[in-house]
Design goal:
Its main location: membrane. Helix content is 5%, strand content 44%. It contains 1 helix and 11 strands; from the N terminus they run βββββαββββββ. The strands form 4 sheets. The protein has a 4-stranded antiparallel sheet with strand order 8-7-10-11, with no helix packed on it.
């Protein structure tokens, strides 16, 4: 019930130089659970923004009245990575020693926000549901922790895909839950849901 909403939400997107450089934003209005209406869109060219500073942007909504006020900062990723199983970041003994030193008891209060990080090895899925008429699926796996999201590549025409990827997330809240969802890629259409598991960090 507001024409001037304030969300004050922060989202972290992992921007890699070989990915798309445009940030696409949509504003939606929701009347009830079934009815939604698009109120406008806007786009931000990430490559045009100065790095290592917070950029205050007022973005007019395209073909609709209104604008969005946003703070966008482009900074080096800390503690976030995607790698193959054979080059796992924690596989290097020197790196393990540095991490042990970083999180030892005497350094506990050096950086209160640096709680730690989570490393997830996504190996494979077994006996997935067939989403295509051919009796196969094109599965990929999405990992979400708080507002962080990373995903694997798609393995086409396979119900027992092997991804063998290693994902590393910085932990911002020890009460967060790691959500791992498997989808079927469906071309230009939204992906089909194949399954999900939720793992509380406190259970690890």
């Amino acid at each position: 019930k507001s024409a001037n909403p304030q969300w004050r939400e922060q989202f972290d997107f992992h921007y890699f130089s070989d990915r798309k450089d445009m940030l696409d934003i949509e504003v939606w209005r929701k009347d009830n659970k079934k009815h939604e209406e698009l109120l406008g869109t806007c786009h931000v060219d990430i490559t045009a923004l100065p790095t290592k500073q917070t950029n205050c942007l007022e973005l007019p909504l395209e073909k609709h009245p209104g604008s969005l006020l946003m703070l966008i900062a482009v900074a080096p990723c800390m503690g976030v990575s995607i790698s193959d199983l054979c080059v796992c970041p924690l596989g290097d003994p020197n790196e393990r020693q540095q991490i042990s030193q970083r999180y030892c008891i005497k350094n506990s209060f050096r950086d209160i926000k640096d709680i730690g990080f989570l490393q997830v090895k996504v190996l494979k899925a077994v006996d997935l549901m067939a989403a295509d008429f051919s009796g196969k699926s094109d599965p990929f796996c999405v990992l979400e922790l708080g507002n962080d999201m990373l995903q694997t590549h798609t393995v086409y025409k396979n119900l027992n895909p092997e991804w063998n990827k290693v994902f590393t997330f910085p932990i911002k809240d020890i009460h967060d839950v790691l959500e791992v969802t498997v989808f079927d890629e469906d071309g230009d259409k939204p992906p089909d849901f194949l399954g999900k598991v939720a793992i509380p960090l406190l259970s690890v």
